[in-house]
Amino acid sequence: MKIAAVIPARMASRRHPGKPLIEIEGLPMIEHVRRRTVLCSGFSDVVVATCDAEIQEAVEAFGGTVIMTSKEHIMASDRVA
């Protein structure tokens, strides 16, 4: 059976705008999350779901896969439903 991990991310958070791209130890936070998820043995694929081109560019720069979603989603977790 194939199981994909979908990581929702957006720049327009009310509490922490821009949080996915905050640099930690030289990498954007979203890349730390993606790399840790890739290390999980239960997933056949790991993708980031976002509506933001900045996140798309950051993830793809490190070889990750992105699914572009609608800006109409109110919460990031709506992107995985």
From TrEMBL:
<dbReference type="GO" id="GO:0005829">
    <property type="term" value="C:cytosol"/>
</dbReference>
<keyword id="KW-0548">Nucleotidyltransferase</keyword>
<dbReference type="InterPro" id="IPR003329">
    <property type="entry name" value="Cytidylyl_trans"/>
</dbReference>
<protein>
    <recommendedName>
        <fullName>3-deoxy-manno-octulosonate cytidylyltransferase</fullName>
    </recommendedName>
</protein>
<keyword id="KW-0808">Transferase</keyword>
<dbReference type="InterPro" id="IPR029044">
    <property type="entry name" value="Nucleotide-diphossugar_trans"/>
</dbReference>
<dbReference type="GO" id="GO:0008690">
    <property type="term" value="F:3-deoxy-manno-octulosonate cytidylyltransferase activity"/>
</dbReference>
<dbReference type="Pfam" id="PF02348">
    <property type="entry name" value="CTP_transf_3"/>
</dbReference>
